[in-house]
Amino acid sequence: IDGLATLVKEQFELDPFSGKVFLFCGGSKDRFKALYWDGQGFWLLYKRFENGKLNRPRNQNEVQALSSEQVDWLMKGFAINPKIKNTKACEFY
């Protein structure tokens, strides 16, 4: 917890005591950690997906703030930025 809070403060110049949830993706694509300060102490959540992989930022430029809806999607194993492939219209008759 202390190491993650230090990363939030020093590397990203954010306040770990702000009441925001900070998500961390390590070397594995099937797990992440979440750090949250509730006013009395830190919560640390560790999530490991049994099936599938987490779509995570590949570098610091891809780090982004997530909406509460995107966090919910992430916790359920869905992509936070769904990609919809554009296709050409087809004739059905």
TrEMBL record:
Membrane spanning residue stretches: none
A family per Pfam: TnpB_IS66
Protein name: IS66 family insertion sequence element accessory protein TnpB
Organism encoding this protein: Lactobacillus kitasatonis
